[in-house]
Design goal:
elongated; 108 residues; 23% helix; alpha+beta; 4-stranded antiparallel sheet
């Protein structure tokens, strides 16, 4: 499985990834707080997926277009084409996940 990301061209995240591309990503959904009379009995209900893999920088404008189109499919059914200026202002990378696991809590 592959997950795509985009970023500004500079920053701590990119510096770290360039030195060590091994990553862990986590996605959470359906998050709610479980209240209780005692603070120590409070909790959190959620569903999560965690994956471990390797970040790979996408270099060519054509490959960036494809990756950004995949990202945009989450938000719109309309196709979107990024301009050369937009493509040149960002970094795009993918994470090739080799190990994936999930977890879910249930309401009591």
């Amino acid at each position: 499985m592959t997950v795509y990301f985009h970023s500004a061209k500079e920053g701590m995240k990119l510096n770290i990834l360039k030195n060590n591309p091994r990553v862990c990503v986590e996605f959470d959904t359906d998050c709610t707080i479980k209240t209780a009379e005692k603070a120590c009995n409070w909790g959190f209900h959620y569903q999560s997926v965690i994956g471990f893999g390797k970040a790979v920088f996408i270099e060519t404008p054509a490959e960036k277009q494809v990756a950004l189109a995949i990202i945009m499919q989450q938000y719109s059914t309309e196709p979107y084409c990024f301009s050369d200026g937009e493509i040149n202002r960002i970094v795009v990378f993918r994470v090739d996940l080799g190990e994936i696991s999930g977890k879910r809590t249930t309401a009591a």
